[in-house]
Amino acid sequence: MRAEVLSATPTLFRDDLVLDEGANTALLTWLHGRVDGVFVAGTTGEFPALDRAERRTLAGLALDVFGADRTIVHVGAASTREAVSLTRDALAAGATRLAVITPYYLPVDADTVRRHFAAVREAAGDADVYGYLFPDRTGVTVSPAEFAATGLRGGKLSGAAAARFADFRAALPDARFWSGADTDVAAVARGGGAGVVSGLSSAFPEPFTDLAAAVEAGDAEAERTAQSRADAVRAALGGTVEGIKEAVRQRGFGNGRLRMPAPAPPVERIAAYARS
């Protein structure tokens, strides 16, 4: 089965940093047909800087363009109460696939994580719920064995968790796992993963979808070419939210503004890649 490429879309704002519904819809519409689906209101989407109403709006925009089968709505929050509320909002908007990050900021143990996920799973009913592990950002490490006890359908593995992709697959062989490491498409596909959740593909989808197709076809030369292009995208954008938003701006969507403080993006480096 071909590994899928889900774009982790950035959230686009107006100059006054109000949510820009038109720009977000335009980006989603452009991505439709170029990637296999979208992951909305995640890390690339600056979810800690979004309020509940904005996240409900973003879910609705993505579902309108991609439909429920090709949209994963991130409902994670620092508090279980907020995550449950976001889950109910996503379901009301028509979502059937949800992701929830571990609790963050306060230190937690494995039982706390399990209870947090269980509350979201209960609120989600028949919807598919996937965990989102990003220990580098949350400070929370969940082992494959601990994750197996959560009862979730699988998860998105980013940072240090992505480096243990094979261990998670071995612990839950029937679950679906995506890597947050954009350029690891080939390794994920060969390891039986579902695919990648890629922020970089929001600006330059083709290298990543071409790589997935080449691996599926067993075309070694096409794979090498696509891998080189995917690696070049990562080098140009730096794998950062500010780099992704600047690249999206250069593609004609939004103004590149972030709500969350971040370094200046590599404008010229991104432009040079786009011209190459």
Could you explain the architecture of this structure?
- InterPro entries: Aldolase_TIM, DapA-like, Schiff_base-form_aldolases_CS.
- The active site is at 132 (proton donor/acceptor), 156 (schiff-base intermediate with substrate).
- Belongs to the DapA family.
- With 276 residues, the protein is an alpha/beta fold.
- The chain has a single domain, classed as Alpha-Beta Barrel (TIM Barrel), CATH 3.20.20.
- The chain has 12 helices and 8 strands.
- It has helices at 21-31, 52-66, 80-93, 110-124, 135-138, 144-148, 165-171, 185-190, 206-217, 220-237, 241-250, 267-275; strands spanning 4-8, 37-40, 71-74, 97-101, 128-133, 154-157, 176-179, 195-198.
- An 8-stranded parallel beta barrel has the order 1-2-3-4-5-6-7-8, surrounded by 5 helices.
- Helix 1 links the parallel strand 1 (4-8) and strand 2.
- The model has no long low-confidence stretch (mean pLDDT 98).
Q: What percent strand?
A: 5-15%
Order of helices and strands: EHEHEHEHEHHEHEHEHHHH
What is the CATH class name? Alpha Beta
Q: State the major sheet.
A: 8 strands, parallel, barrel
Discrete helix count: 12
What number of structural domains do the residues give? 1
Topology:
Elements: E1 4-8, H1 21-31, E2 37-40, H2 52-66, E3 71-74, H3 80-93, E4 97-101, H4 110-124, E5 128-133, H5 135-138, H6 144-148, E6 154-157, H7 165-171, E7 176-179, H8 185-190, E8 195-198, H9 206-217, H10 220-237, H11 241-250, H12 267-275
Parallel strand pairs: 1-2, 1-8, 2-3, 3-4, 4-5, 5-6, 6-7, 7-8
Helix pairs in contact: 1-2, 2-3, 3-4, 9-10, 10-12, 11-12
Keywords: Lyase, Schiff base
Family: Belongs to the DapA family.
Pfam families: DHDPS (PF00701)
